[in-house]
């Protein structure tokens, strides 16, 4: 049984994706120790999952609401978007898939010219639509109302018609062994087709994806040429990038330009 305060904490987490100890203590006018106890109990009930400084929705079969995901780590996603966009020269062709971080990349690409963008993300298409220097092709398929993603076999078959210079992809979770994970198997099939039909695959993700789980396997870090994030959790994952030949760019640290 949860207390009224814990019920409200859970409601906030569902709206925002995550909660922070200090903010909750101030909101409820209780001590940080009290909030930590609340979070520990909610985590023991497996509805929340502890992360540094707070908690987020526990791993499960459903993703966090799209608007909540857009608000989470917004500043970090902006920097990731700019760093990823810098990898794409003018005149390139590229895929961009579903996600709030890939949407941040789309915003950063608006100063480019001569781009051909194929996407199954209606939000990306809307961002780029007013810019005549960018040609946008939208995949056909089933529209997922929750986030504007286009999924299903029709979208997968459509993607397979192309071979592009770059792919910008996001995922819902990253496992410690380098597995890339998501929630919707229909979206995963499209992402796998995108990865298979691009010469340079760029994974974009903020560090919160290391704290999460998801049930469907998209692929593995070994299929990624460049991984752009704000920060990886430890040196073990940096070593995993090095072993798989994946260039790691951490926007919270100076980029050496080396494969690490």
In short:
The chain has 260 residues and is of the alpha/beta class. It is 37% helix and 24% strand.
Structure in words:
It is a single chain. This protein is of the alpha/beta class and 260 residues long. The protein has 10 helices and 15 strands. It has helices spanning 4-16, 21-28, 32-44, 66-71, 74-85, 100-108, 122-128, 153-159, 185-196, 235-243, and strands at residues 18-20, 48-51, 54-57, 93-96, 115-119, 134-138, 142-144, 149-151, 164-169, 173-174, 179-182, 198-204, 216-220, 226-229, 247-250. The longest helix is centred in the N-terminal third of the chain and has 13 residues, at 4-16. It is globular and about 55 Å long. The model is unreliable at 256-260 (pLDDT under 50).
Which outline best applies?
globular
Q: What is the percent of helical residues?
A: 25-40%
* Individual helix count: 10
Radius of gyration: 19 Å
Counting copies of identical and different chains, the oligomeric state is single chain
Spatial strand sequence of the major β-sheet:
6-5-4-9-12-14-15
> What's the end-to-end separation, in Å?
47 Å
What profile does the largest beta sheet have?
7 strands, parallel
Secondary-structure element string: HEHHEEHHEHEHEEEHEEEHEEEHE
List unreliable stretches of 5+ residues.
256-260
User: What is the number of strand segments?
Assistant: 15
Q: Which class best fits the helix and strand makeup?
A: alpha/beta
The pLDDT mean sits at 88
Strand content: 15-25%
């Amino acid at each position: 049984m949860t207390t009224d305060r814990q019920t409200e904490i859970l409601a906030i987490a569902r709206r925002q994706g995550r909660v922070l100890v200090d903010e909750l203590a101030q909101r409820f006018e209780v001590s940080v120790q009290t909030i930590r106890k609340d979070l520990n109990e909610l985590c023991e009930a497996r509805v929340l999952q502890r992360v540094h400084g707070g908690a987020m929705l526990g791993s499960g079969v459903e993703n966090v609401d799209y608007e909540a995901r857009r608000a989470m780590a917004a500043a970090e996603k902006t920097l990731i978007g700019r760093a990823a966009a810098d990898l794409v020269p003018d005149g390139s062709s590229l895929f961009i898939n579903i996600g709030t971080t890939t949407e941040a990349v789309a915003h950063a690409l608006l100063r480019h010219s001569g781009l051909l963008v194929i996407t199954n993300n209606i939000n990306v298409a809307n961002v780029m639509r007013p810019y005549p220097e960018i040609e946008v092709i939208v995949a056909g398929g089933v529209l997922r109302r929750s986030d504007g993603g286009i999924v299903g076999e029709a979208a997968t078959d459509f993607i397979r018609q192309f071979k592009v210079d770059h792919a910008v992809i996001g995922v819902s979770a990253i496992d410690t062994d380098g597995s890339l994970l998501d929630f919707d198997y229909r979206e995963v099939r499209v992402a796998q087709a995108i990865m298979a039909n691009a010469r340079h695959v760029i994974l974009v993700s903020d560090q919160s994806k290391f704290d999460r789980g998801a049930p469907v396997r998209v692929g593995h870090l070994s299929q990624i040429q460049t991984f752009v994030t704000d920060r990886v959790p430890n040196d073990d994952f940096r070593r995993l990038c090095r072993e798989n030949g994946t260039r790691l760019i951490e926007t919270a640290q100076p980029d050496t330009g080396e494969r690490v």
